[in-house]
Amino acid sequence: MTPHYGRAHSRFPDPGQLNKRILFYTRQDEPIGASGTQAANQGACTVWGKLLPVSDTLRIHSFQINKTVTHKIIVRYRQSLYDSSQAVIKGVVYQIRGVTDIHSAGRFLAFSCEETSSQPERGNEFG
Fold it and tell me: What domain of life (predicted)?
């Protein structure tokens, strides 16, 4: 049975399951020239975490509220990550849709994310 992080009956992940390097940052578009923008990413932080695809039920529900969720990312608690808007794992960009402190215990964070591209966006120096 797959644990559902964020629910009252879930367990914390085993630290050995945090086996992916995940780069979190806040995307900030800045104007360039007279008519363009460029991503100037801020607050970069790389941590160990776990990537989980969400169930079909959760994915369908997310479509209904116009906030698509395709994956969950689980990491050790770090207050500074609350401001992150994107995450990158092995070149795949995930748009963060929400974050939850699992059991409000200050031990792990669960990010609800949408996979948005298989290549970092142009101007993303963190790729």
Answer: Bacteria
Predicted local confidence at residue 32, as pLDDT:
72
Domains and CATH numbers, the chain: 17-117 (2.40.10.270)
Please give the torsion angle defined by the CA atoms of residues 14, 91, 1 and 9, in that order, rounded to the nearest 10 degrees. 60
pLDDT, block means (10 residues), the chain with 127 residues: 47 88 85 70 88 72 68 94 93 93 94 81 45
Calpha distance 15→116 (Å, rounded): 27
Looking at residue 104, its amino acid is: S
